[in-house]
Amino acid sequence: MSISRLADLADPALCPRLVVKVGSSLLVGKEGVRRHWIEGLVAEIAAMRSRGQDVVVVSSGAIALGAARLKLEKGGRGSLADAQAAAAVGQIALSGLWAELLGAHGLTAAQLLLTLEDLEDRRRYLNATATLTRLLDAGAVPVVNENDSVATQEIRFGDNDRLAARVAQAARASAVLLLSDVDGLYDRNPSEPGAKLLPEVRGISPQVRAMADGGSSSGLGSGGMTSKLQAAEIAERAGIALAIANGTHDTPIARATQQAIGTLFFPRGKAGARKAWLGGRLRLKGTLTVDDGAARALGRGSSLLAAGVTAIEGQFHRGDAVAIRSVDGSVLAHGLSEYDAAECQAIMGRHSREHADLLGYAPRSAMVHRDQLVLL
Questions:
Q1: Which residues is 375 bridged to in the sheet?
Q2: Looking at residue 294, which CATH number applies to its domain?
Q3: Which of 98, 154, 266, 362 is deepest in the core (most CB within 10 A)?
Q4: In whole angstroms, how far apart are CA 54 and each of 44, 49, 262?
Q5: CB contact set of 257 (below 8 Å; sequence gap of 6+)
Q6: 255 in a domain, yes or no?
Q7: What residues contact 199, with CB distance under 8 A and at least 6 apart?
């Protein structure tokens, strides 16, 4: 049995562990914290816990809260320094609010602040997994946010939609629920006449991506529909369902699950844990472009051989994650390189029998081995 409809997100047998992402515009309004709304959401989380479901919260709002207290312009997003300062102030208020409201229901909140590198580096990712698992086993409700007070433009998620999908991987969750300011994915901009809500999506295709609007309508958040589709791609590769629902209503989880209002993205067949982590990576060290023959071989489950590589980009070392793309620029796979970038340059397009002379040592069996590669 697997998740096949929005109502299943409330079923502990089908969804024993759920990640709920809450956007900035839902937590903070023009008048400040939307306390009444948050109290209703926490009551829903408490009800889910009483049914036997684990819940992980991915909460935005630190920058918006801190910006209001520091009286910063543009919601604290006028500059990186403003965002970092706002986050440092707002995170205290945000974590305190979650701790207070969950505590009123007898639940213990636990704060985790993560950066992109915490989930992109394999060892740190496993550490995050261990922490989340132990907290959930102990009965706590982890409240996760990006560590915006130290993250820079180069090493940050930039939105909590993709963070939620990666946290779901690390927490081994069954599903992710992204609470937003829209009902779900529409076939066009929802402000246009005749726009239709899509109740379910099976696979993120170019046509589906074309439906997305990259903006954040509130001006408080950093993610739009594009980031939500990217989150859905990360989740689906890991065998995790993802739903988008409107959080602006009271009791938004009940509205989505009981009235079936939202969009449910179905997972693909579940990849192994390491390959799911690799496929969901957002930061890659380089790119290998391959010819049509190599692309077809990859599709049949083969390793990537140097003979089929036509171009190398980036500076990377053996074991670093790289993208593998076709000659038209489409990303085919992510993989861990068996060679440094300079070595890849030396042997690309050359037959394996030439590699020993070119490298000066016995070559490896592939440039990217199939066991360290995941097709996208």
A1: 333
A2: 2.30.130.10
A3: 98
A4: 12, 6, 22
A5: 6, 7, 9, 10
A6: yes
A7: 184, 260, 262, 263, 264
The string of pLDDT tens digits covering residues 142-187 is 999 988 888 765 556 768 899 999 999 999 999 999 999 889 999 8
Q: Is the dihedral of CA 165, 169, 171, 173 positive or negative?
A: positive
Higher-confidence position of 315 and 149: 315
* Percent of residues in the chain assigned helix, strand, coil, to nearest 5: 40, 20, 40
Do 136 and 209 lie in one domain? The reply is: yes
Beta strands in 94-161 (DSSP E): 109-114, 141-146
Question: At which residue do the structure tokens 């639940």 appear?
Answer: 107
Indicate the number of domains in the chain.
Answer: 2
**Nearest-angstrom CA–CA distance, 280 and 220:** 26
Q: Residues 309, 294: contact at Cβ < 8 Å? A: yes
Alpha carbon 231 to chain centroid distance?
A: 4
Longest dimension (CA), the chain: 71
What span, in angstroms and rounded, lies between the C-alpha atoms of 207 and 229? 12
